[in-house]
Write a structure and sequence with these properties.
Helix 7 runs antiparallel to helix 9. With 331 residues, the chain is mostly helical. The protein is 61% helix and 4% strand. A hairpin with a 4-residue loop joins strand 1 and strand 2.
Amino acid sequence: MTDNISYYISKFFQDELGNIKECSINTKKSYRDSIVQLLSFVSNKKGINNNLKIDDFSADLINDFINYLRNEKNLSISTCNLRLIAIKELFKFIQLKNVDYFELCSSIIKIEHKKKEEPIIKYLSINEITKLFEVFNFDDNIEYRHFMILTTLYETAARVQELCDLKVCDVNIINNSITLTGKGKKTRVVPIGKALSNNLKEYIENLKLKKDEVLFKNRKGQKLTRVGVQYIIDKYVDIARNRNNDLFTFKPTNHTFRHSKAMHMLEAGVNLVYIRDILGHVSVTTTEIYAKCSLELKKKELEKNHNHIQPEITYSEEQQEDLINWLKNNI
């Protein structure tokens, strides 16, 4: 059995990720980038240009790599942990294929993830969302299409890839819902408002789209990309910011729309379990991050409980006299 790590990396991507695990394209790209960065780091550290062996790796070296990403490349803790997940998956694969390196692989698999700081979720207020959607000119076909893209992105709380993958057949006008295909090809049905449902019906009819066609395309008639969606967001946020100087204090991304919808549902009193299902989270624990980060929700809770927080102190006349006498004699 070979000890050349290139062999195992090749088999890992072909067999493990390619056939066995139902990974999304973006997950595969993330794993690829993680392994490429690790190989570059180890090559420089060891002074080896090619033909790296499994023995060239260790738990200490992997920890050095993660610290390098965090401290020198200034990557977030979340990104560092994603890199570590990819590396662990690779060495789990090697461990199964070559028992000679069982202990080495185990030491790498046992590496603990870095603890995350208290999350700060940036999201647009309802006022900002409203102002943003007011800038579109519906008489312009391109702006009309862009409006449909962004309103669908917001209302469904979809991940950007889920939006790009949407087909006409995923839209249910009768039930006012959209079927999203998320990570691991898992599908979920999310409700949409009657207004968006009617707009999508008109949009599909105007463009004469067939059921198996992609719902949103770019100017060339091709499937949207995450870069294309970000371009649309940047374009109209800039217009809205110029009209409202006190709003849009940060640069929103496609994920900002997902965060915003989740926050707005939470602040409207929607149960976390329902929000979890709409977002496609496996556990409600993941969804609870929004409750921790919602300033509006904290304000509401403080206002609601204000009377309970403030102590109500009452004294009888005799108690008041005793208190005054004590103050005179002791202060």
